[in-house]
Design a protein that fits this description.
This is Dihydrolipoyl dehydrogenase. InterPro entries: Class-I_Pyr_Nuc-Dis_Oxidored, FAD/NAD-bd_sf, FAD/NAD-binding_dom, FAD/NAD-linked_Rdtase_dimer_sf, Lipoamide_DH, Pyr_nuc-diS_OxRdtase, Pyr_nucl-diS_OxRdtase_dimer, Pyr_OxRdtase_I_AS. It catalyses: N(6)-[(R)-dihydrolipoyl]-L-lysyl-[protein] + NAD(+) = N(6)-[(R)-lipoyl]-L-lysyl-[protein] + NADH + H(+). Pfam families: Pyr_redox_2, Pyr_redox_dim. Keywords: Disulfide bond, FAD, Flavoprotein, NAD, Nucleotide-binding, Oxidoreductase, Redox-active center. The protein is an alpha/beta fold. The protein folds into three domains: 203 residues, FAD/NAD(P)-binding domain (3-Layer(bba) Sandwich), CATH 3.50.50; 108 residues, 3-Layer(bba) Sandwich (FAD/NAD(P)-binding domain); 110 residues, Enolase-like, domain 1. 32% of the residues lie in helices and 25% in strands. The chain has 14 helices and 22 strands. The strands form five sheets. Strands 1, 2, 3, 4, 5, 6 and 17 form a seven-stranded mixed β-sheet that branches. Helix 1 runs parallel beside helix 9 and helix 3 packs antiparallel against helix 4. The chain starts with a strand and ends in an 8-residue tail after the last helix. The structure holds flavin-adenine dinucleotide and 1,4-dihydronicotinamide adenine dinucleotide.
Length: 462
């Protein structure tokens, strides 16, 4: 039996970051991981592999659609799917090996296997029981199931199967127009699949700024994605090579069927804590199955903490990472802090979509007076030169104080641009503060400044 200051269960972005920070703060640390590789959902079957496929398929799209206009002539590339998967897998490998290196560098023990908590202060892995003054549960999430839909990860797949298909399907049906459905739907559409997205609601990406939703859906349609909106998928039927997706339109209850080679189920994720027997430990769950925690991420049992997808809040890698750092600080007797009001969300399609803070709807619901500063990428020289003029930046600021309350971007590099606004919000900046900051020309960032100018006397290039 070994004994540790902290044992973390799960090595995703929440768990591995917590482990590194604990070790940096001088705590004797171990991390339990049941998968063959460190890094959790994000590195193995989430953020990283999906972004590799998005990158590769975007390159193809550029070659097919924009190269000739720039005077780059010649045969456009064809898809070698096996090689694309090899590239994706090598990206995973580099990143997971990187975490292994960081564990060694920080003298963190990787306890290989599935962990359980027989009692507070103890973690069992295989036949060995280890002592831990503190335990952090960072066991993440898994794809939600849908009644009537049986996943085989070959023909009816979750995102995990969709990252590993045997070939590029001719026809793909995506259930759910959320983040996973649109990112992976974009990948396969660019690779030549006929993709139909079936969405229960009347708008894509629920909760997002309605103007962004409309522009985003219009752009994706132009790129070839088909949408069936207001439709609830009732069931799927599958053989070894084909599937049917049955759906009902909400407006008139009419029933329809779509044929596909692959159906991707992307209707959300749920917290994962199988095998931990939390009830026996006296750890309470929320109604949605998340582990209930205090503001300092402690569960109902002293010395047992939880972070990441397994607790409340957006299921995002960077939210899990921030909680990982903060909980380590708390355990080390310092002050750990996460500002949940400034957690950006990014969809890595082309164009990218990014948001942070309040939406117009949340501000209206709160009865808060606000102003809107909007600027189209059509007025941005760099975007126009790069065939990226579709989209806009929208900044929401307090009507009285001018303080920035939120930002919504659809356009080139949105996922990077949003951070300028995040930093401004962290510092309590006004739109004028952003507007008065010199921005290099020609950059996409100028569109953010122009949106900030639009909150005051007006933008220059519009
Ligand atoms: P996880 O990453 O899920 O890690 C939990 C780990 O715990 C797993 O490795 C699991 O094997 C291990 N584990 C569970 N139980 C035990 C046990 N009992 N013993 C030992 N080990 C255990 N987020 C973003 O911010 N950006 C993106 O671009 C993005 N893309 C995504 C794409 C896809 C296809 C998916 C599915 C998700 C994506 N996400 C993205 C979400 C992101 O992956 C998660 O928010 C993030 O991984 C959560 O981190 P975590 O540490 O809480 O849990
Ligand atoms: P999601 O919650 O984003 O979207 C699910 C969609 O499915 C919703 O629009 C919902 O209305 C729809 N839906 C539900 N039931 C349906 C039915 N029966 N028929 C038709 N539509 C139905 O969930 P998603 O896309 O599975 O992603 C899960 C999580 O993974 C996200 O919440 C996100 O946190 C994380 N993620 C983040 C990424 C990023 O940051 N870029 C990328 C991928 C995933």
């Amino acid at each position: 039996m070994s004994s540790y200051d902290v044992i973390i269960i799960g090595s995703g972005p929440g768990g591995y970051v917590a482990a590194i920070r604990c070790a940096q703060l001088g705590l004797k640390t171990a991390c339990v991981e049941g998968r063959e590789k460190l890094g959790g959902t994000c590195l193995n079957v989430g953020c990283i592999p999906s972004k590799a496929l998005l990158h590769a398929s975007h390159m193809l799209h550029e070659a097919e659609h924009n190269f000739a206009e720039m005077g780059l002539k010649g045969k456009s590339p064809s898809v070698d799917w096996k090689q694309m998967l090899t590239y994706k897998n090598s990206t995973i490998e580099t990143n997971t090996k990187g975490i292994e290196f960081l564990f060694k560098k920080n003298k963190i023990d990787w306890l290989k296997g599935w962990g359980t908590i027989p009692e507070a202060g103890k973690v069992k892995v295989g036949d060995e029981v280890h002592e831990a003054k503190n335990i952090i549960i960072a066991t993440g999430s898994e794809a939600s199931s849908l009644p009537g839909v049986e996943v085989d990860e070959k023909v009816v797949v979750t995102s995990t199967g969709a990252l590993e298909l045997g070939k590029v399907p001719k026809k793909m049906v995506v259930i759910g127009a959320g983040v996973i459905g649109l990112e992976l739907g974009s990948v396969y559409s660019r690779l030549g699949s006929e993709v139909t997205v079936v969405e229960f609601l009347d708008a894509i990406t629920p909760g997002m700024d309605p103007e962004v939703q409309k522009t985003f859906q219009r752009t994706l349609k132009k790129q070839g994605l088909n949408f069936v909106m207001g439709a609830a998928v009732q069931k799927t039927e599958a053989t070894k090579t084909k599937a049917k997706a049955h759906y009902k339109l909400r407006k008139d209850d009419s029933e329809h069927v779509l044929d596909a080679d692959v159906v991707l189920v992307a209707t959300g994720r749920k917290p994962y804590h199988d095998g931990l027997d939390l009830e026996a430990l006296g750890i309470r769950l929320t109604k949605r199955g998340q582990i209930a925690v205090t503001k300092e991420w402690q569960t109902d049992v002293k010395g047992i903490y939880a972070i990441g997808d397994v607790i409340e809040g957006p299921m995002l890698a960077h939210k899990a990472e921030d909680e990982g750092m903060a909980v380590a600080e708390v355990i080390a007797g310092k002050h750990g802090h996460v500002n949940y009001g400034v957690i950006p969300g990014v969809i890595y399609t082309h164009p990218e979509v990014a948001n942070v803070g309040e939406t117009e709807q949340t501000l209206k619901d709160a009865g808060r007076a606000y102003k809107v500063g909007k600027f189209s990428f059509m007025g941005n020289a760099r975007a126009k030169a790069n065939f990226a003029g579709d989209g806009f930046v929208k900044i929401l600021a307090d009507k009285e104080t001018d303080r920035i309350l939120g930002c919504h971007i659809i356009g080139p590099g949105a996922g990077d641009l949003i951070h300028e606004v995040c930093v401004a919000m962290e510092f309590g900046a006004s739109a004028q503060d952003l507007a008065m900051t010199c921005h290099a020309h020609p950059t996409y960032s100028e569109a953010v400044r122009e949106a900030a100018l639009a909150c005051g006397d007006g933008p220059i290039h519009m």
